[in-house]
Design a protein that fits this description.
elongated, Dihydrodipicolinate Reductase, domain 2, 120 residues, three-stranded mixed sheet, 17% strand, alpha+beta, single chain
C-alpha cells in the first residue's frame, strides 16, 4: 500500500503526533488522549525505555524514514499485554460503563446467589 500523495517525513511525524482520541474515550480511566508518541532519536523506541509509555497504553513510534517500496517505514513499539488484550478489554468495559450498559439493578440481578439444595 502506498500513500495517495507523497508525504514528507515531517508530515508523517506530525500526523502521528497530532492523532488524538475522542473526548469520550479520553475521559476513560485507562485511556490516553494522545496514544501515539513519536520520538526523533535514531535509536528509539527501545523496549526497556519505552514500553510503559502512557502507562503501557501508548504506542511509541520512531525511526521514521523513507522507503523505496512503501514510501515511509517506521519502528513501532507497544505493550502487547497492556495495550493489546488486557488493555483493550479494560477500555471496552470502561466505555460500556460510561454509556450506561451496566446498571446497578442488572448487576445485582446477575450476581444474586442461587439457593443451594438442602440436604436431608
Amino acid at each position: 500500500m502506498s500513500l495517495k500523495k507523497i508525504a514528507t517525513l515531517s508530515e508523517v511525524r506530525e500526523a502521528l503526533r497530532d492523532f488524538t482520541v475522542s473526548e469520550e474515550l479520553a475521559a476513560l480511566p485507562t485511556a490516553v488522549k494522545n496514544p501515539v508518541i513519536v520520538l526523533d532519536e535514531e535509536n528509539r523506541p527501545q523496549p526497556r525505555r519505552d514500553v510503559d509509555a502512557g502507562n503501557g497504553m501508548a504506542t511509541v513510534v520512531g525511526r521514521v524514514r523513507e522507503c523505496p517500496l512503501f514510501d515511509v517505514k517506521l519502528t513501532l513499539l507497544s505493550h502487547n499485554l497492556l495495550r493489546g488484550a488486557a488493555g483493550a478489554a479494560m477500555l471496552n468495559a470502561e466505555l460500556l460503563a460510561s454509556r450506561g450498559f451496566f446498571t446497578r439493578s442488572r448487576v445485582q440481578a446477575d450476581t444474586q446467589e442461587v439457593p443451594s439444595p438442602v440436604s436431608s
